[in-house]
Specification:
Number of strands: 7
Number of domains: 2
CATH architecture of the largest domain: 3-Layer(aba) Sandwich
Strand order of the largest sheet: 2-5-6-1-7
CATH topology of the largest domain: Rossmann fold
Number of helices: 15
Radius of gyration: 23 Å
Helix content: 40-55%
Strand content: 5-15%
Length: about 350
């Protein structure tokens, strides 16, 4: 018997799923889709759901049966007519190489022209399509202009603007948004393959994920996640009261965008919580389990200080996205962080 955990059932973005279902029921599926949304919001999950829908042996009124051979094999990645192409990433999830022309050529010149081996329709999922090199995008464009029969392309991207406009124009766009915290928390609390679940932990993970199911699931797979988070909370509180030398030392090893991006996301949620609390709002804060610490810290900061530092975090994110030196960008950022004497 396999010990592999069952995936979290699809959650959120029901409007997108209903749209695809209605289109399939009306036999009006497009030959190409572009799923756009934040990282780990569920774009790949929805793409595989669509692949199961069009190839399911016993579809229902609400989607694929999830029990037939086709559904199970697509879910486990061993179905010959469903292929995923993706960029190369490092251990931190940072893209090291975008989708290359060789990868696209393999699909459009050798695989797409073939008839399905056993499926009703071949499905090619191109993840990180907004990382495609221009030659790769132009190679794909030729196929999107004259798509082969019985074939569906699903492109996923975080930023539609980074794609060639001509590629975008030949795809049906589907936008995915973060899932409401309550919806995601309920799904996590009911997920039987998460043995450590409880309602409080499910809500915390839903909040910390920013409403992105994939991020929440990834957190549940890290045994030391909550321990590491406690250390991070202690670290960020310590920074506020640290002198410039300690602040600079704290970012001395900051080197890669793959580490910088998630850290900036964490800082954004922390400082947004401070601003919310400073203005008298409790309900929408992310770090609910740290309310006492946040409230104490917020009392020592003026709203304008918090708002200004939030803008600096966003500016730093943009600078790093534009290939600024990561360490230097963080050094300037931590020196601009508001100071609170004796923060604990």
């Amino acid at each position: 018997m396999s010990s592999e955990r069952a995936p979290l059932p699809y959650v959120g973005n029901e409007a997108a799923r209903r749209f695809l279902l209605r289109t399939w029921q009306a036999s009006r599926l497009a030959h190409a889709y572009l799923f756009v949304g934040p990282v780990r919001v569920g774009r790949r999950t929805l793409a595989l759901w669509l692949a199961r829908l069009v190839n399911c042996g016993a579809p229902t009124d609400t989607g694929p049966c999830e029990l037939c051979s086709s559904c199970r094999r697509i879910m486990h990645g061993n179905y010959p007519d469903v292929m995923i192409v993706e960029p190369q990433t490092d251990e931190h999830g940072e893209v090291r190489r975008g989708v290359l022309i060789e990868q696209v050529r393999e699909v459009v010149e050798h695989l797409a022209p073939l008839r399905p081996y056993e499926a009703r329709a071949k499905v090619f999922i191109i993840r990180g399509a907004d990382t495609m090199t221009e030659p790769a995008a132009n190679t794909l464009l030729k196929t999107l202009e004259e798509p082969p029969a019985d074939t569906i392309f699903v492109l996923t991207a975080t930023d539609q603007v980074r794609l060639l406009p001509t590629v975008v124009s030949r795809c049906q766009p589907v936008t995915l948004r973060p899932v409401p915290v309550r919806v995601l928390a309920d799904a996590l609390a009911a997920w039987e393959d998460w043995p450590d679940r409880n309602e409080d932990r499910a809500e915390l993970f839903a909040r910390l994920s920013g409403g992105r199911p994939g991020a929440a699931v990834l957190s549940t797979q890290q045994p030391d996640y909550l321990t590491e988070r406690r250390r991070w909370v202690e670290h960020v509180i310590g920074l506020v009261s640290a002198d410039r030398h300690k602040r600079l030392a704290s970012v001395a090893n900051m080197r890669t965008r793959g580490v910088a991006g998630p850290l900036l996301d964490q800082w954004l949620t922390w400082w947004r919580d401070l601003l919310l609390l400073r203005t008298g709002t409790w309900e929408g804060i992310t770090h609910q389990d740290q309310r006492t610490v946040l409230a104490d810290l917020a009392e020592h900061l003026h709203p304008s200080e918090i708002a200004s530092f939030l803008r600096r975090i966003e500016e730093t994110r943009l600078q790093i996205e534009q290939n600024a030196n990561v360490r230097l960008a963080f050094e300037v950022l931590v020196l601009d962080m508001p100071f609170v004497k004796g923060a604990t």
